[in-house]
Amino acid sequence: FKFDEMEPLKPELKFPDLGDEPIVKDISRLPELKSEEEPLLFADVMPEFLGGDSLRVVFLQNQVVYPRMAKDAGISGSVYIGFTVTRDGSITDIELKRGVGGGLDEEALKAVMSMPKWKPGFHNGRPVNVSFVMPVTFTLK
Question: Full-prediction pTM beyond 0.85?
Answer without folding.
Answer: no
